[in-house]
Amino acid sequence: MDVIFLEQVKVQTKLGVPAWERMLPQTILLDIEIGYDLTAAGKSDAIADTVDYGAVVSQIRDSLTTHSFQLVEALAEHICQLILRDFGALHVKIKVAKPGILPGLKALGVVIERGV
Predict the structure, then answer these.
(1) Active site residue: 10, 14, 98, 106, which one?
(2) What is the band of 116 on the pLDDT scale with cuts at 50, 70, 90?
(3) Contact 114, 84 (CB under 8 A)
């Protein structure tokens, strides 16, 4: 299986357990690996034979404007299922990082993997 990766994707969403934390969007960082068979794209040089990563990022950003989450786990699951369902990925690995949420902590987050 081949992998398309998107690193340090900045998105805005409402995320947090306390309601006050979900009042305003905050910046979340995503590292995404999309498992896909890229054999045809390597031969054809056609976007139709691969995953359009611009469309992936756009769809994630659009989706996060209408959703809020209490847990980073739920946010990660939402994004994985979106990529599997809407882009025909065979496998998705995502790291969700919520930077600067606690004093003295660079970021907190999760890494999850899902496949078909």
Answers:
(1) 98
(2) confident
(3) yes
